[in-house]
Predict the 3D structure of the following.
Amino acid sequence: MRFDVLTLFPGIFDGYLQKSLLKLAIQRGLVDIRLWNIRDYSADKHQKVDDRPFGGGPGMLMCCQPVFDCVEAVLADGRQPDMPTSETDQPAQLVMLSPQGRRLDHGLVMELTSHERLLLLCGRYEGFDERIRLGLKPLEVSAGDFVTNGGEVPAMLVIDTVIRHIPGVLGDETSSKYDSFAETGLLEYPQYTRPRTFRGMEVPEVLLNGDHVEISRWRSEQSLRRTRESRKDLLNLRAADGPASQEG
């Protein structure tokens, strides 16, 4: 899967791309991440990419010209000029990282995973000139109900969540199946490792008896209980499922 990150600060991604599962996925050719500096596409001799908002107000806005030109150049990258566009374009989804966008959740992550290529457009300053949204018609995605200094960290969140669902990225292909919010829509159950006792806290006996049916039942109950205690809103998105959902 290919990710094109369009940003004013590509250097922010240097360390991120060299760590953990993402580094291995890139080395194995499962993930292709390309960084593009929006400033390189500015027509201004000083590479200016922002200006004051009409009507006044604080801060600066990212201008249309460099963003449009950068997006169009990135979309064209990889096309074979000797073939019709419709036959050679790698399917791509332009994503604008914005606090006004659709909140990133498991359902949206799965939608993004269905694309072969994502263009992640990172904003800065006070945001984008509105005509960027109107003209480019991106999918707007928000990392949550808060504002970051730019779209780079939310872009990393998108990459981190999406690559978990690319075959071969995780060491155990079933890992993402049991994540919080995944197939059941609930929070993940508690997990333990060695030692069996730490500072007076014991591993639940059910996890030590080797009865996998009982373990599975316990995990389901704990997942439901944890969701009810911490994220009751998730239960409203899920139909009651059997006797376990009737726990008091």
